[in-house]
Amino acid sequence: MSQDEDILAVAREGFLDEARDMLRQFEQALLTMEQDPSDAEAVNSAFRAAHTVKGTAGLFGFDAVVRFTHEVESLLESMRSGELALSDEAMALLLQGRDQMERLLAEIGLDAQDPDVAQTSLTLGEALRALRERGAPALGQGLASAALSGGADPSRLVAESVPAAGGVWHISLRMGIDALRNGLDPLSFIRYLSTLGEVRGIHTVTDAIPDLAALDPESCFLGFEIRLATEADRATIEGVFEFMLDDCSLTVLAPDAASADYERLLDARAPDTQPEAREHLLAAWQSLAGPGAAPFIERREDVPERRANEPERRSGAKERRGGDETRFIRVRADKLDHLIDLIGELVIASSGAQMVARTEQSPTFGEAAQRISDLVQEARDGALGLRMMPIGETFSRFQRVVRDVSKQLEKDVELAISGGDTEMDKQMVETIADPLMHLVRNSLDHGLEGPAERLAAGKPAQGRICLNAYHESGSVVLEVSDDGRGLNRDRILAKAMERGLIEPDADLDDEQVYQLIFMPGFSTAEQVTNLSGRGVGMDVVKRNVEGLRGQIRVSSRPGQGATIQIRLPLTLAIIDGFLTSVGGVSYVLPLELVAECLEVPAECQSQPDRVAGHFDLRGEVLPYLDIGRFYRHSGTPAARRSLVLVRDGSTRVGLIVDRLHGEHQTVIKPLGQVFQDIKGLAGSTILGSGEVALILDVPALLDLATTRLSSAAGSRGQAARTVAGVHSEPR
Amino acid sequence: MIMSDSVIDVGGASGGWRLSGELTIQHAATQGEQLRQWIDAGMMSVDLSAVEACDSSGVQLLVAARRSVAARGQSLELRDASAPVRDVFGRFALTGLLSSDVVTREHP
Fold first, then answer.
1. pLDDT tens digits for B52-83?
2. How far is residue A691's CA from residue A689's CA, in Å, rounded to a whole number?
3. Do residue A206 and residue B89 have CB atoms under 8 angstroms apart?
4. Which residues contact A435 (CB under 8 A, 6 or more apart)?
5. ipTM score assigned to the predicted complex
6. Taking the complete model, does pTM exceed 0.90, yes or no?
7. Are the beta carbons of A217 and B63 separated by less than 8 Å?
8. How many CB atoms lie within 10 A of CB A652?
9. How far apart are CA A685 and CA A351, in angstroms?
10. Residue A224's closest chain B neighbor by CA?
11. Which of residues 57-116 of A touch B (CB under 8 A)?
12. Exposed (0-12), middle (13-18) or buried (19+): which is B102, by Cβ within 10 Å?
């Protein structure tokens, strides 16, 4: 029993996951439609997405979702069949519909029901329906009245014998018994067919419908024989039925199909054992084709040579699917996390084995351990790769935000996305979505000017926001940039002083000033809007980014725009490290950030008490930080020390350590609460020997080194706690 | 709602059996049950003027209902079809099953 519930819960989770994907696809399609109303594929895609949500929700009995989605789907259906044109009103309703679907789905996730949401379903559903009924100029009425005035045989639409340009195709369709239950109504497909050409005749096969006592009203017993005059090709016609192939049997015969093909179809639909059904079907065909048409089945033994230049093919179920679906499987995230944990342990164990091999001084053991270590490394990369996903999906969600917000603010804004295929850890993608959203809103609200102001400044009326992502030396960089007014240094400074965030005489460079916007309680918006300005947000953005071991930077050019750059580590779990030690403590640096290793330069050695200073690297002046002194190691430093040059973006810093131990696969473990305040540490790891090593947070160290060295050092008082005796000197 | 044969007015003036609401898959089970009861009670004509929506399942129900009535040697009149019903039957080229003012034809 409980097992069943478990299975159901998992299936439900899968449904919600899929539904969220479908909503994304739905929204994407709507936005494409808005850009290009003639894009039929976008309408189809939106329709399919809504349809899938409705269908699967039906399987689970989520009636609220089914009922509402049905209205959305119906409206799209009218658009798909050309009965209704896309208007602003329709677009607004469809987008609201999407949001409502999301709310309804969220209710399933929470297992709660909000009367407000139900009410919205009703009102919005009615609005959708009203629009559809108002907009549909009764294409169907035409058919109906044609049938009424059809004369001789009003139960069928009889084709007039006017030759059609592309020829008349024959479509034979039998619905599967579960079609209606799965949300597939043949009605909508037949409606849609009429967009491809002219439905010359249709015969509804009702023979299979039992009497009422035996009928399960939700089962489907309908079949159709359709004559369609169209210039479309076979693929297009079959494409109409694409996503109900599982639930029907379909045969499409080309205009020049031979009578043998019809014979085969007749055999399939009504075998010899049912002479009555056979006669019915033949009669139906004959009357569909019109009185003057040649008989469909010529009773003769020699089957004529096939003239059809289009090969006949019974489209079996699933044939056209496959593709993407078969290449992916869904895996529960916790299973994946467990696998990655295990691989982390494996990494530690394997480096333990290597250490034993070294101390045993056994070359064969060493070789075996090395081989294992190589494989573990590959397994690690593979496992981490499983968690990677492209950021593009998250980026494209902002299309909607930009559209809605810019409408609300009466600004004209274009969103440009690049680097969408850049991959990063799934959890990171999820965590970074909200901060990114806030940055985009902030750009829309505060960064970009209104059209009038832009024109006055000699800029195009349409503003531009760019989202960009790329990999750079072991990090993922995400950028949100706009071509708006840029950050106002003076106003930020004034505001910060007014709020008491900085001392009145503080001397800050641009970067430091811009960083002030991330301080809690800071907001320069003269008008607090309901979008982004309430002084909450930017500090939360920064906190989130730092929570992912990332940094956030701002650059701005007055009048030309601002760029906010978020730099995140590639993964949260395991990195290639570079192992060093100072005294008895091991420190790990991310290997990607290590540029080179040098002997400690003479200028550093001459002042052994300094924590930080500058040195000369082939004519370039770079800062350095003495790790031993920085973390206040006691005892005399080793006689022969090394300097590791690390880089972060374009800045570089030298870190002085006692010994270098080389590459080390590092499983990142969080630091305990006690160590949270220590600057410059990103985490800890366990070495093969079981000892703990500390992982250095290079970007943070870099900041510390430069802050320490700038003339303003100490004015902001950060990190001074851990460092004693700082000698400051002007840069 | 149960009436005896003698009371049925084919013209529909006295109300008779009138389906209302939606003849759609969502309501198929209830509507089917309703029709079943009415047929057991001897219905020979059903008023469709109050049907607000109709889909394929509705068509099936009405065809099945006709079949049930036909089984006892009578025929069921589908009377005064509303626009949605007429539209769907038109799409399916089954308009002949709906009674116009003049004729009711049995579908083959």
1. 889 899 999 999 999 888 888 888 888 888 98
2. 5
3. no
4. A540, A541, A544, A545, A566
5. 0.80
6. no
7. no
8. 18
9. 12
10. B92
11. 63, 66-67, 70
12. exposed
